[in-house]
Design brief:
163 residues, mainly alpha, 434 Repressor (Amino-terminal Domain), 9 helices, 0% strand, globular
């Protein structure tokens, strides 16, 4: 029987880094908080926490317990499942139960995950600003037309000036 280190059993990777699943969940907390234009301080106050604790949750440095995740989902007005949406297969495979893999495979997978997160459009400030602006459009019919236009433009390939 393989002995699992105490650090791994607490949800950290064998290298001591935060678990990518915790980082993903924290990122989704941050995304929703920012979409609602709530500060870390205000979210902390609504949860009975300091803003520093909220910050640690959002970075995945501290794990969010099930009861705390439930509270966060109520304050941010989303289902608990929201925090696990858009998780790629590579991240979901980083569950602590899977940490009996050789360490070099885990380190390689983690570095790939970090690169993917850097390129994730949902983690960009521009995306959050765009979503906020979209939902501020008072005429929902106009907003729907804008949505349709953006979808249409994203499917169109444009020639560059040099072609």
């Amino acid at each position: 029987m393989t002995k699992v280190s105490r650090r791994v059993s607490r949800g950290r990777t064998p290298t001591g880094q935060p678990n990518p699943i915790d980082v993903h969940v924290g990122g989704r907390v941050k995304l929703r908080r920012m979409l609602l234009n709530i500060s870390q301080e205000k979210l902390g106050k609504l949860l009975g926490l300091t803003f520093q604790q909220v910050q640690k949750y959002e970075k995945g440095m501290n794990r969010i317990s099930a009861s705390r995740l439930y509270d966060i989902s109520k304050v941010l007005d989303v289902n608990v499942s929201f925090f696990f949406e858009d998780m790629d297969k590579s991240t979901s495979n980083q569950s602590p139960r899977n940490f009996i893999l050789p360490e070099d495979e885990i380190v390689e997978a983690l570095s790939e995950d970090r690169d993917e997160f850097k390129n994730d459009p949902m983690s960009k400030k521009e995306t959050i600003e765009l979503v906020r602006a979209y939902y501020k459009i008072p005429n929902r019919n106009t907003a729907k037309h804008l949505h349709d236009l953006i979808i249409s433009l994203s499917k169109t390939s444009y020639k560059t000036d040099g072609e």
